Amino acid sequence: MQIIKTKVSQAVQFLKKNDLWAKIAFTIIFLSYLFFVHSCTFNPLPGWTYPIYENKYPGYSYKNKGAKQCELDGKKLFLKLDNVIESFGYYFFVDSKAFFVWHLQYQDDDNGLKNILTYRFERIGDGAIGNFDVLRRTSIGIDDRKDSIVIIYDENDEPFDGFTIEPSPFSDKIVLQKGNSKDIISTHCVWE
Amino acid sequence: MVKKLIDKLFTLTAFISAVCLAVHYAPVSLIFEDYSLDPFDKMRYTLAPLFSLMMLASAILLFLDLFSLKYKNLPNKAWKIFAAIGVVPILPFALFGLIIPFFVFP
To answer: pTM for the whole thing?
Structure first.
């Protein structure tokens, strides 16, 4: 203990006299703090594109391995999660508020994926130890009726600021409904 | 000549560190929004600007030092006093950050 005290006071005396080393020490303290913060709390999450499958059975759709992919007007449907990557600079200086941004997409004739709907959830937990990220999403069920496309989402998972309907060939026909899990798994296409 | 450049370089890095910490300590809500405080937050919101100002003073002095200017007759060592006070909250984290690599890499 005494040795630590003497060493510390010696170091402080040295830094008081030696300006250059004081600056170096200060910079190193800042950088190691930055490194610490970075390693604990910065948690980028890569996005993913999920195909949506048809619901052949009156049960849960994710058990339908080998099921046919859902199509609207012959165009395959996907559900995409954007990369949840925060810029570290923004995270460090300003409190970050990252979102899980989901897009309902269709595959167009040129094989590109285009958006039908966009919705997002706030990210709770900052990835620090003991404060794990939970992937926030809602189950959706899609029913293609004659003059409308009914999309049922889980009433317990309300998105942050509602659904944004993007311009697409289907945008006029979309009807959004809240439902419970029973309503969702009784539709034609389900993603959970 | 080289010694002078090295000194300028580290003055610059110390200046950047001081500025970053000054911004980091200043809670953004204090600057941009009306805030309503409950008693536990009061402590946080009165201390943080203090550290922020310490860092800011240190940054300003370092900036002057960078261009070899002096403010009235403050000695060159004045920035160290402000920096030493301001760096207190992050010292434990910084020390931990320094020893993390020694746990991760062997």
So the answer is: 0.56
Nearest to B23 among A26, A37, A93 (CB): A93
Query: d(Cα A38, Cα B6) in Å, to the nearest integer?
Result: 28
pLDDT tens-place string over residues A151-188? 888 888 888 888 888 888 888 888 888 888 888 878 88
Instruction: Give pairs for B2-8: CB < 8 Å, separation 24+.
Output: B6/A20, B7/A19, B7/A20, B7/A23, B8/B66
Overall average pLDDT of the B9-16 stretch: 88
Contacts with A52 (C-beta within 8 Å, 6 or more apart), sequence order: A69, A70, A77, A78, A79, A142, A189, A190, A191
A101 bridge partner residues? A120
| Triad B41, B91, A132: Cα angle to 5° | 60
| Per-residue pLDDT tens over the stretch B81-102 | 888 888 888 888 888 888 877 8
**Where does residue B72 fall: left (phi above 0), alpha (psi -120 to 50 degrees), or beta otherwise?**
left
Q: Provide the number of structural domains found in chain B.
A: 1
Burial class of B9 by CB neighbour count within 10 A (0 to 12, 13 to 18, 19+): middle
d(CA B102, CA B92): 16
Total Cβ atoms within 10 A of residue B66: 15
* ipTM reported for the complex, 2 dp: 0.80
| CA dist., res. A181 & res. B72, Å (int) | 72
Chain A residues touching residue B97 (CB < 8 angstroms): 32-37, 39
Q: How many CB atoms lie within 10 A of CB A110?
A: 6
Check if A176 contacts B (Cβ < 8 Å): no
